[in-house]
Structure formats: C-alpha cells, structure tokens
Amino acid sequence: MDRLRRRVIVKGRVQNVWFRDSCRNEAVARGIAGWVRNRADASVEAVFEGSPQAVEQMISWCHEGPPRARVDSVEVIPEPVGDEVGFAVK
User: pTM for the full model?
Assistant: First the structure.
C-alpha cells in the first residue's frame, strides 16, 4: 500500500479551541498515524502518515479545523515516510 507523510503548520486561532483533540479524532477515524502539538508561536504542528487519500483529507480538514478555530494559513511540508504508529497529542 502506498503511504504518504506530510508535516503541517497551522496558524490562526488554533490553540485553546480543541484543535489538537479534534485533529486526533479525525486522524484516527481515517487510519492516519502521527501526532499533533502546540508550538510556542501559538501555531499547531502535526505529522500525518497514511494513505495518500487520507493524508490529503487531513490536510483539507486542517484548513477548517474545529468549529471554534480560525485558520489563517496551512503550510504543508513533504517528508519521507517514517514508521509512525497510532496518533498522539503531544
């Protein structure tokens, strides 16, 4: 099976709006491995690894986020596929 890995940096009002927990729920539902965490600059960073379709769906979700979020930008960084297992909130 083809796998894809992308790192995303999401900027806007994305902390204290349940972004990380919602992201984990969306990723688990799509069979995505990886993690999500808050960054010191008030952005959120995530790594998604899984089928190309599922990874693209997660990237699309990041452009909206949960209802209380306001996403201003999403940076997508291609990375080599790793060995991520499960999805963690860091």
Answer: 0.95
Distance CA 56, CA 68 (A): 22
List phi, psi (to 5°) of 87.
Answer: -135, 125
pLDDT category, 1, cuts 50, 70, 90?
Answer: low
Q: Residues with catalytic annotation?
A: 20, 38
**Within 13 A of 51's CA, how many CA atoms are on the CB side?**
8
| Range 11-44 burial, b when 16+ CB lie within 10 A, else e | bbebbebebbebbbebbeebebbbbbebeeeebb
Q: How far apart are CA 84 and CA 68, in angstroms?
A: 29
